[in-house]
Specification:
Blueprint (H helix, E strand, L loop, with lengths): L12 E4 L5 H11 L3 E7 L19 H6 L4 E5 L4 H11 L4 E4 L5 H4 L4 H7 L4 E6 L14 H7 L20 H24 L4 E5 H7 L2 H10 L12 E4 L4 E5 L6 H9 L11 H6 L1 H12 L4 H10 L3 E4 L3 H6 L1 H5 L3 E6 L2 E6 L23 H7 L4 H9 L5
Parallel strand pairs: 1-2, 1-4, 2-3, 4-5, 5-6
Antiparallel strand pairs: 7-8, 8-9, 10-11
Length: 393
């Protein structure tokens, strides 16, 4: 395992007030690459993801664990002055503060950027929200599905006959979390030049809009809907033992090559252009569906790859996790949880001189409270008094 001191963000102290996904996936990334991350959690209940998702067994909630490795936890009641003062003490020598409460919550706690930067002018104050810290939706609860709906993503379908649906993976949370990481890293670089910290803000809404940059450009410039899922020669097709996804594009005459692979007559003379193929999409898709349904996934993958067509079997998540490419890429990390081996997804960013490892397993609620308080100068008597008063746990 690589020593933390050799990692790119070693020496960077992050105070993490985040919960659920947007913020925790961002601070976990900072921790994976060497930052010291102190997770400040609500005394008694902690991060919502510790308990909001049903789990089986006696181990810690896998959802929480997937987002909170390489962090230490302090359980703190910030409703009173003593808890708020402790939070400010934690931040006094920090490099980064990260939160994803609703806009205004950190300010009401006395932990807004204007307040904190007076004592720590080099502080980077990073904030993730649903829709932004100002504007008509600033107080609307931020959640991935809402951002999907309000950004136009949910309304765009591969087939107009399909019902509207929620995308089953949290695209907005993860993309906003990674944008928050980018913002923090940019602010750290800027501080190297100026010596000053700054505010960094991202939102679920902005992140999912940004993911539609191509589609938005066509909409604004040409008034045309660009929908990659509705391309006439692409689709998902069931086979006798599974399904195949095929992308009929990026070739001089993809329809001809598809017909060769499927061992049917060449339809490219009858439907020669993309525009004509769009008009007759339903017919072409029906022909493809009937043909794919006549043989196995392996058979059709071999046929399509023989024509250099982009294709893949459709796998379940279980199959993808066991795929040799997943393990070759180092995308599964293991650690011991109460003596039981636990696995989770690793980092998709691979640096040749910075190996990602689980140095600190996902913490129990308040697991390092005493240790963290000692580091900011409190003795055991003071810690005991704070615990008796219900300020920490």
């Amino acid at each position: 395992m690589m020593d933390q001191q050799t990692l790119p963000l070693s020496g960077i102290k992050v105070i993490d007030f985040t919960q659920v996904m947007l913020g925790p996936c961002a601070t976990q990334t900072l921790g994976d690459f060497g930052a010291e991350v102190i997770k400040v959690e609500r005394k008694g209940s902690g991060d919502l993801s510790r308990w909001a998702v049903e789990k089986r067994g006696n181990s810690d909630n896998p959802v929480f664990c997937s987002l909170n490795r390489n962090k230490r936890s302090i359980a703190l009641d910030m409703r009173g002055d003593a808890g708020k003062a402790l939070a400010r003490d934690l931040i006094r020598d920090a490099d980064v503060v990260v939160s994803n409460f609703r806009p205004g919550v950190m300010e009401r706690l006395g932990l807004g950027y204007e307040d904190l930067s007076k004592d720590n002018p080099g502080l980077i104050w990073a904030f993730g929200s649903g829709f932004g810290s100002s504007g008509p939706y600033q107080h609307k609860g931020g959640q991935d599905v809402l951002a999907q709906a309000m950004s136009g993503v949910m309304a765009r379908k591969a087939d107009p006959d399909h019902p509207l649906a929620i995308y089953p993976t949290t695209l907005c949370d993860y993309s906003a979390g990674m944008h928050l990481v980018q913002g923090v890293l940019l602010a750290l670089l800027a501080r190297e030049k100026t010596g000053k910290g700054q505010k960094v803000e991202v939102s679920l809404y902005d992140s999912i809009l940004a993911m539609q940059m191509q589609e938005a450009a066509m909409e604004m410039a040409e008034g045309i809907e660009l929908n990659w899922a509705a391309m006439p020669l692409s689709g998902v097709f069931e086979t006798t033992d599974g399904a195949v996804v095929m992308v009929g594009a990026f070739k001089e005459n993809p329809l001809r090559d598809i017909c060769t692979a499927l061992e049917i007559e060449d339809l490219s003379g009858k439907y020669p252009t993309l525009e004509v193929q769009r008009v007759h999409r339903r017919l072409l898709q029906a022909i493809f569906r009937e043909r794919f349904a006549s043989n196995t996934t392996t058979h059709w993958i071999e046929r399509l790859e023989g024509q250099d067509l982009l294709c893949s079997p459709v796998k379940t998540l279980t199959e993808a996790l066991e795929d040799p490419q997943t393990h070759h890429n180092g995308m599964i990390l293991e650690y011991a949880n109460g003596g039981e081996p636990m696995r989770q997804i690793g980092q998709p960013v691979h640096l040749s001189d910075a190996e990602v490892a689980i140095r600190v397993p996902p913490p129990l609620l308040g697991e390092q409270t005493d240790q963290i308080l000692r580091e900011i100068g409190l003795d055991d008597d003071r810690i005991s008094s704070l615990r008796q008063d219900g300020v920490v746990a």
